[in-house]
Predict the 3D structure of the following.
Amino acid sequence: MKQHKTDVIIIGAGPVGLAMALGLSQQGLDCTIIEKKPGDKYAEPSDDGREIALTHRSVALLKRLGVWEAIARHDLGQIKTAHVLNRRFASPLSFTSEGTGKERLSAMVPNAVIRKSLYAVVRDVKNITLQFESEVTAVSTHANGGEVTLDNGQTIAARLIIAADSRVSPARQMMGIDVEKLDFKKTMILAKVAHEKPHNDTAHEWFQADRTLAILPLAGQHCSAVLTVEHEEAEELLQLDDTAYAARIENWFEGRHGKMTMAGPRNAYPLGANYAKSFYGPSFILVGDAAVGMHPVTAHGFNFGLRGVETLSDIVAGAKRRRQDWAAPALLAQYNRVQRLATRPLYLATNFIATLYTRRGPLSVLARQGLHALARKVPFARQLINRQLVDAGRS
Ligand SMILES: Cc1cc2nc3c(=O)[nH]c(=O)nc-3n(C[C@H](O)[C@H](O)[C@H](O)COP(=O)(O)OP(=O)(O)OC[C@H]3O[C@@H](n4cnc5c(N)ncnc54)[C@H](O)[C@@H]3O)c2cc1C
């Protein structure tokens, strides 16, 4: 079959792969995106229930990529205040954007809106080629480039190969990069609900005895009800009809937003986390969930993916200014260093929180109470968490 040559091959047309193509095309690079699924899934993505809390830094990058305008045409929610509750509703640990110079903690955007908007922009960019219904079955690289083989036998060569091919990341496996994995042995059920009382742009993350319930504000009088339970309980809850399920959520939230009714389907996700042992190889990098797959409790998976786009785009821009090889081993090592430093602390903290807050037993309850008391008493700790939530970045 015919051998093609492009600057960059991106494996995966998920939100991070599409954003990466935009970032690098803005630096004048020709990008080819290879995606195994058909194109209509990307032009009109279905609602997967995910409501993505975007940091200010991510919004700034999406503006730079020319995508934010399309996103902002939709009705969006925002989080101005977040309460973290341990067992009882009283004495929450609260976060606001106060002192950060921003009027909200984060914007709330449906994942389908992000994906659709990215695709709409990417489709019209001249130096991006989208190739759907093509699965990458082999990857090989050396210091000066690499090539991928597709399931139809075609091979494509490029200076740099980027894997944005999900948590499972077949390309990561093909490159022999190990990954550490965690299974939280829980299921998260997401559902959009309508309610009687206003939510005042306030998010609640409530760690109850047998479950975690997050009620996240969306546009209008709607919230995303995010429930984390054991797998068996999730199976039972998914069998309930809409009225019974909404009543459960309303009851577990102690009716604080008034009567609740379902405003969308339920989507369920088993919860895990993954962190690749390295984010690079010769002429190869990992980005998005292929590099870092986060537990959703701290809402940072896609934000980290965008950070990777920003990091690599800036490195390429610098190399081009200096007329250097923009995929030189030292620059890919720099990407690896910067991106690990940006993600590792929150990855570990998130896993700690997800484990501590969902574990039963008196010791865990005590530890959580201690942690809350500490965070309340030490303003510096709260400010640090506030800053992480807002992540104003360079905007
Ligand atoms: C319940 C939930 C809530 C979340 N909330 C937030 C939040 O509030 N904030 C936040 O920042 N993040 C959040 N996230 C995380 C966010 O959704 C992910 O980080 C993001 O979608 C990852 O995108 P990606 O492009 O890296 O991977 P994916 O979306 O998984 O895309 C990978 C693509 O690669 C393709 N592919 C795979 N293998 C091949 C192959 N061999 N050849 C060709 N194509 C291939 C796949 O078909 C797919 O299209 C949440 C996640 C969940 C589950």
